[in-house]
Amino acid sequence: MKFVLSDVNLWYNDFQALTNVSMDIMEREITAFIGPSGCGKSTLVKSLNRMNDLIEGCKITGKIQLDNEDIYGSMDVNQLRKRVGMVFQKPNPFPMSIYDNIAFGPRTHGIKAKRQLDEIVEKSLIDAAIWDEVKDRLRKSALGLSGGQQQRLCIARALSVSPEVLLMDEPTSALDPISTAKIEDLVLELKKDYTVVIVTHNMQQATRISNKTAFFLLGEVIEFGDTDQIFSIPKDKRTEDYITGRFG
What we know:
This protein is of the alpha/beta class. The chain contains ten helices and ten strands. The protein has helices spanning about 40-45, 75-85, 100-110, 115-125, 130-135, 145-160, 175-190, 205-210, 225-230, 235-245; strands at about 5-10, 15-25, 30-35, 60-65, 70, 85, 165-170, 195-200, 210-215, 220-225.
């Protein structure tokens, strides 16, 4: 087991964005968060590596445990973010070379030896299924890559510090269908070694790649279970209405 969430509530000042969220996110599975815009999916994902700490007026109660350790307790936040990587909706490569984008994280964690960095860069780019496309241009700017390549580069950058969990907040929403298919294939491959949580608006994507799905509505988890069951025989009428397109 990776994450255990118990009665998680989150407020931005007076607005309650999450209400009594409890779920177990299992190791080496893909868990998808679906639901209409503004229903708490991204808020919860950002809470899993304490990205919400950066937002003023954000208050959280309840418990989020990573391998039985409370992440809002005494856990060092830098250590947490090393273990729990994040990939955002829009590719956000740093304005530096492809090589330096990947080496950035390992360097901040104290790895300086060139040979070691070379190995990490190559492995991360191979794992993110982009090595063959960039191996001859590692010293060129990452900003010269296409959108789909930039997103795979950002995945490689997240993998470079050897995380255990990969959080993905709508990683394909800004991409074309071919790039989307490449990222989906990549995520399925990554599941062998990582726990993946993916926020998606694309319900077909959730059915194609996830093991478990959580349906969010107005800050609550309405239903959470095996993806096949959620999409074929949802237990809650609101889940059924959403996945059949009656609202959202």
